[in-house]
Write a structure and sequence with these properties.
The longest helix is centred in the last third of the chain and has 18 residues. The radius of gyration is 17 Å and the shape is globular. 35% of the residues lie in helices and 26% in strands. It has 7 helices and 10 strands. Strand 4 and strand 5 form a beta hairpin. Helix 2 packs across helix 3 and helix 3 packs across helix 4. The structure holds adenosine-5'-diphosphate (2 copies). One adenosine-5'-diphosphate binds next to helix 1. GO terms for molecular function: ABC-type transporter activity; ATP binding; ATP hydrolysis activity. Keywords: ATP-binding, Nucleotide-binding, Sugar transport, Transport. This is Multiple sugar transport system ATP-binding protein.
Amino acid sequence: MAEVKLIDVVKRYADGTEAVSRVNLTIRNEEFMVLVGPSGCGKSTTLRMVAGLEDISAGDLYIGERRVNDVPPKDRDIAMVFQNYALYPHMTVRENMAFGLKLRGFSKQDIRQRVEEAARIVGLETLLERRPKALSGGQRQRVALGRAIVRRPAVFLFDEPLSNLDAELRVRMRTEIARLHRQLSATMLYVTHDQTEAMTMGDRIAVLSGGVLQQVDTPLQLYHHP
Ligand code: ADP
Ligand code: ADP
């Protein structure tokens, strides 16, 4: 259980680019928030700051009650799903899903149980011993989802996770991620440039443009007052 709160958050890159300008945004506990906007508007930078993969230049970031500005990624209660899946090619599906848990010192028995539970949730029970190259795009994306799920984080972060999939699969995975959200009762922040994805998946949508947060509303409100 966690709320994510950005207070006057700024990101200035070393070359002087202000990618994110004083963003104030609260993602409520168990909310599905979509962050949308054109290429280069600062979506990925925002997500990476929440993940701890980029430093914050100014402002405060909270995950739950905890100010996490200086907390490293592995100590934040988050898991991230990437566009390119970021799977390890030499490892099986099971090993890919287990890897983060192994690093964190989970017992063999606990890892097995969590991996098998996650595999059931994403429908990969029969593919656990395969390597990524023997999987379809949709199956690879499910492994990436499974790898996030085994961690049981309070917050899931998605960086355009469906943009490498064909149209049909994209629609199917949208439904699957929405189902996951209900099933896991987690807080989710989902970055996309796809308006349809935003409108169909978000409890609320945050619209970013040129590093500035323009609007935060439900899909219905946005549809009537764009
Ligand atoms: P989006 O995810 O919406 O496409 P990004 O967050 O990737 O946008 O980028 C926001 C802005 O910051 C863009 O102008 C981009 O060129 C710039 N930017 C991104 N990463 C860096 C970096 N490492 N150094 C300098 N500028 C960057
Ligand atoms: P995972 O969290 O996927 O099980 P790790 O424990 O190695 O794998 O990840 C440590 C941190 O690094 C996590 O916060 C994760 O979000 C981040 N991370 C994992 N893969 C990548 C990647 N390909 N690029 C950038 N960051 C990554």
